[in-house]
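Q: What residues go here?
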């Protein structure tokens, strides 16, 4: 009986605790787009965490909101980059982003993300699924992890109550 209860708790958590079920972003841009156009996209949608940058059909990297605004806010950054193609900012992009399958569990994805170098630790992650590559914001991943922990603690408490009822009923 106890194994059945534990298996049911684990199955529910595993099915819902994968990154492919989280809110993912599909916005992308090409390296030849003007930086001002990219800035406009970020200004128009304050929730947009970043863009998948493509070179033709291939993924070149990720440009996060933080990276773009950080780059154009340094002295002369705006003057240098804003009217030029995104390609000019290539050195400021994450050209080797963390890419995980959509079936990756939330805890595993969070562990992988947090083991990245300091400057990339909280940058968005690419999620590969059957529908294509999408962007996962770290904030969303951390909230999902907190929710899973809360669910696990609640499940544990309910399981302990059931065990006490069974043991106490003997």
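A:
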């Amino acid at each position: 009986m106890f194994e059945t209860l534990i298996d049911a708790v684990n199955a529910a958590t595993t099915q819902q605790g994968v990154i492919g079920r989280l809110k993912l972003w599909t916005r992308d841009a090409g390296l030849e787009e003007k930086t001002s156009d990219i800035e406009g996209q970020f200004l128009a949608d304050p929730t947009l965490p970043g863009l998948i940058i493509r070179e033709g059909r291939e993924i070149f990297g990720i440009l996060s909101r933080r990276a773009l605004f950080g780059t154009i806010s340094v002295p002369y950054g705006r003057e240098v980059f804003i009217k030029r193609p995104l390609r000019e900012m290539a050195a400021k992009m994450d050209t080797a982003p963390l890419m995980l399958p959509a079936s990756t569990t939330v805890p595993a994805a969070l562990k992988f993300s947090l083991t990245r170098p300091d400057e990339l630790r909280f940058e968005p992650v690419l999620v590969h699924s059957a529908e294509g590559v999408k962007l996962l914001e770290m904030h969303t991943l951390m909230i999902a992890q907190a929710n899973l922990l809360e669910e696990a603690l609640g499940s544990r408490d309910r399981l302990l109550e059931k065990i006490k009822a069974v043991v106490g009923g003997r």
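A: Context that may help when evaluating the design: The beta strands are 28-30, 50-55, 58-64, 99-101, 125-129, 132-136. The two ends are 15 Å apart (CA to CA).
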